[in-house]
Task: structure prediction
Amino acid sequence: MKKVLLTGFEPFGGDDVNPALEASRKLTGWTQGEALVVTRAIPVVFGEAIATLAAAIEEEKPDAVISVGQAGGRAHISLERVAINVNDARMADNAGNRPEDQPIDPKGPVAYWSTLPIKAIVRALQESGIPAAVSNSAGTYVCNHLFYGLMHYLAKEGLSLPAGFIHIPLLPEQAAKKPGQPSMSLDLVVRALQLAIEITLR
Amino acid sequence: MKKVLLTGFEPFGGDDVNPALEASRKLTGWTQGEALVVTRAIPVVFGEAIATLAAAIEEEKPDAVISVGQAGGRAHISLERVAINVNDARMADNAGNRPEDQPIDPKGPVAYWSTLPIKAIVRALQESGIPAAVSNSAGTYVCNHLFYGLMHYLAKEGLSLPAGFIHIPLLPEQAAKKPGQPSMSLDLVVRALQLAIEITLR
Amino acid sequence: MKKVLLTGFEPFGGDDVNPALEASRKLTGWTQGEALVVTRAIPVVFGEAIATLAAAIEEEKPDAVISVGQAGGRAHISLERVAINVNDARMADNAGNRPEDQPIDPKGPVAYWSTLPIKAIVRALQESGIPAAVSNSAGTYVCNHLFYGLMHYLAKEGLSLPAGFIHIPLLPEQAAKKPGQPSMSLDLVVRALQLAIEITLR
Amino acid sequence: MKKVLLTGFEPFGGDDVNPALEASRKLTGWTQGEALVVTRAIPVVFGEAIATLAAAIEEEKPDAVISVGQAGGRAHISLERVAINVNDARMADNAGNRPEDQPIDPKGPVAYWSTLPIKAIVRALQESGIPAAVSNSAGTYVCNHLFYGLMHYLAKEGLSLPAGFIHIPLLPEQAAKKPGQPSMSLDLVVRALQLAIEITLR
Result:
């Protein structure tokens, strides 16, 4: 059995739901083939987000880590390619922090690659009828922050697990309040994450 | 019991599926409260589309008519407000016709309003968590053509039924082949059409 | 000499400039070949807009009328095809009016076509390197209101002039304050309107 | 006098013009305050692009380097923040190369930051009425390739010049052939680059 740690962010920015959290909850305890999924909710707070994830990795000792966040405005599942060493927030996080052009770790490298098989996952999703693409930017808000923190933690600890970040669209019920925004059903997001987990463990 | 005629277009433009047809098939025979749904597939062919719909109205004598078509690029359910008296196609229809700036009926008025309760339907959909909006243009291809033909036929026959046109997004499996395109699950589209039918008959 | 009445709306919606007004001012008194341009500023107020335009037509007795408005979000010159008989405002006009689903004239027809040679103008603009397209909706705010009012006035007065409405993008200085919005330089807009006038009088 | 090396890419992807090349040509020999601009045309070819730029730096010994490329679909001047060590092309370059997921330099770091004052430039542009924003991805085509190659070359040579990459929109004459695409006039792009040079040398 291989353990996959799947994380989802808490709601933020005025929303009372976050599809990343909803999807990860649906997958708590999911097993298939070799995979067992454990999950964590991650606060949308600079610093705390990384600390929560690092504690979960120490506790769970997973074989792979996939962090998931919401990307308003995107119509497809986005496999993030690269995390960059900067916090640059246009709006405050859930604790009121709004860093501008601050390094995540002043001693860290400029960027880390995702170590998930992102191209293979995109192909598998598309073949299963799920809109998906590689993304070259996870932004500079708490999503990129967590993604960078994840890869930096694994590097410092000398752990070579497959790990990375996936952005998902808004839920239809969120988009219903934001005219013109694309969305994706929770069922489809859950199927997409299941496929991503399977491809990652293969 | 009130009979609602629901129509969906056949696939076109290289797609092998049309969400409008899929959704209408799922609703064939659907009953709730006063509603009984009968459906027809409509060819994506100028002229034939209207003829097929007119024949169905004569045969079924419905209490309301809702025609549905696919709108690539739109992220929400679009309640069309107005049909205009022009065929102006950028690509050929399924019979190879590509009319430019031709009136649908040279003797017809410039435009017809939808007689569906479009604002009430949009509100009901949004309150149910389904992305929806009023649209002020159904384009100038076979969708607008059918919409105009429907309203013109009812006007000429002196029938005052609620009738109109609804555009729906691509299915996820279509969008999976068209990077960046928004989509909506068939389940949600079906729920949206059920709500539209209920509000229309209220 | 043929007189063309060119109108541009005053600023609205928090902007302190309107590219339609700026462009029309630049063209005041412009002559070329048969064309002489006279201009008017139009208030962004339901009702007053049409009254101002009707008074200008009576006074100037033009051979053609082209009304121009700003279309935030559009990247090209839009030749509007059709005006519809409805006022449906999402935000208040400059006098605080915010009509919803009101007819412009309860006795008027559903819609009027533009009588400008819209396809020929689009072709001429594109050939001159100016982004342009036909648009099938002028919206339901004061722009469509003025366009409908223009065509309805001419119809009631029995005047058969070429007349219609052109939407133009934001100016770069407006877009500089609205991240992601497309824009077009005033010089290019002025050239586009000159071409539209020439094609209209041909 | 401080010398600024400004580079612009040659046309590619079926276009017969590249706004980056046009703008850089207009600025050849431009001087203002301390600035003297020298320019180079860069081939849209993986490998050759970097070699051409490196040769120009050796020859010109500039005090700052700004490389410029065209970004179809973007409406504003994009100050690129970060270059990543990957070539991943969706279409062939001008020599027929189409690398997928190849490192630019297998021994290079994952990414480099721009050393241009990107936030100060964005503010200056916006204050001058020019649409501008920071971008967190220069893509994975020849633009990012050149940007990475530039920063990697400077790092290897131990040169600490301000250097980076700016993406600019299509010209109106290009957008006239690509319906819906935003554009920016060459004059405005030239003014934007002049301001970027001035802020960089300050």
Remarks:
- DSSP finds six helices and nine strands in chain C.
- Strands of chain C lie at 2-9, 31-32, 35-42, 64-70, 77-80, 82-84, 111-113, 132-135, 163-168.
- Residues 2-201 of chain C form a domain with the Aminopeptidase fold (CATH 3.40.630.20).
